[in-house]
Amino acid sequence: MDKKIYAIINPTSNSGKTKKIWSASLQKLKNSFPDLSYRLSGYSGQAMEIAAAAVKSGYNYILAVGGDGTINEVANGILKVKSDLVLHPVKLIIFPQGTGSDLSRSLELKSGLNYLIERIKKNKVQAIKTVKAQFKTAARVETRYFVNIADCGMGAAVAKQLNQNSDFLKGSFAYLIAILQILFKYKNKLVTIKADGEIVYQGKLNTAVVASGKYFGGGIKIAPQANLSRADLNLVLLKNISSWQAIFNLVRAYRGSHLQHELVSSCFANNIEISSQIPLTVELDGEIVGCTKANFKLSSRKLLILVD
């Protein structure tokens, strides 16, 4: 079967560099894959709409060009289409261009155009799990999938700050600056967390991470025990840690050795519920989507991704 590829590009990702990179890459991609079509997204949520429409039109490969947020939107667009309406299995291709690109890091994808072309030609597929998240917004309760990491608490507050910061800040450095901006003013909140129906934590919490992949925050190995293909979710809790303890553990978290701290825990479950009297911001794959009460449930649907 010919590769019928539809590319969805977020021109504002990577501080606007993605648009220039795409323009420079297009002809070489067209030479290798003549049936390539593409469209630039113009607003938040549009990549989801474009992806769903492309799948319904019969495209069997969807190329996401951007960061983790773009990949999340494209993945949701693919998953939005009911499986019985899809003529052929749809495969996601990632051309990582974001500030963090943490899903690509978990997948160990090589960066660069030549590696992308080689990856598409090789057609090696990895099936990863998807997670259905339910959360509150100002108007209603909403549902959305994520594929790498969700978190509530200070981690989500950092993601929100990152989105507000200057575009001149890049990569892991941008995340580090956002962490330092939030760290000393963030107050831990009282929460109740259930895993598979059982209360696993009640008390003050800094951050709750629901992980499929290992990395967030531009390379922080927050969930070293997580696995994208494993049939459960990794719940990592940074409990009532102080700002100074958080700084100490941040250094360890880049190596994935922070789980040794007495106020950090890790467990596995298929269904995780987080509630709090004071709403906590919820972040999915780097995007702020709503607040608690939130539920994260392992989905039966898999996402097929081309890997190196």
Distinctive features:
2 domains, 15-stranded mixed sheet, Rossmann fold, Tumour Suppressor Smad4, 308 residues, 8 helices, magnesium, kinase, metal ion binding
Task: Tell me what you see in this structure.
The chain is an alpha+beta fold. The chain folds into two domains: 5-123, 3-Layer(aba) Sandwich (Rossmann fold); 131-299, Tumour Suppressor Smad4 (Sandwich), CATH 2.60.200. Helix content is 30%, strand content 34%. The chain has a 15-stranded mixed sheet that branches. Strand 1 (5-9), helix 1 (17-32) and strand 2 form a beta-alpha-beta unit. Helix 2 packs across helix 3 (68-80) and helix 6 (154-164) packs across helix 7 (171-183). The mean pLDDT is 91. It comes from Halanaerobium salsuginis.
In short:
This protein is an alpha+beta fold and 308 residues long.
| CATH structural architecture of the largest domain | Sandwich
Number of strands: 15
The succession of helices and strands, N to C, reads EHEHEHEHHEEEHHEEEEHEEEE
Oligomer: single chain
Shape: globular
Which residues sit in consecutive blocks of at least 5 with pLDDT less than 50?
none
Mean pLDDT: 91
Rg over C-alpha atoms, rounded to the nearest angstrom: 19 Å
Q: Structural class of the secondary elements? A: alpha+beta
What is the total number of structural domains?
2
Counted by DSSP, the helix tally is: 8
Q: What is the rounded distance between the termini?
A: 20 Å
As a percent range, the share of strand residues is 25-35%
Largest sheet: 15 strands, mixed
Name of the CATH class of the largest domain: Mainly Beta
- Name the helicity range: 25-40%
- The CATH topology of the largest domain is given as Tumour Suppressor Smad4
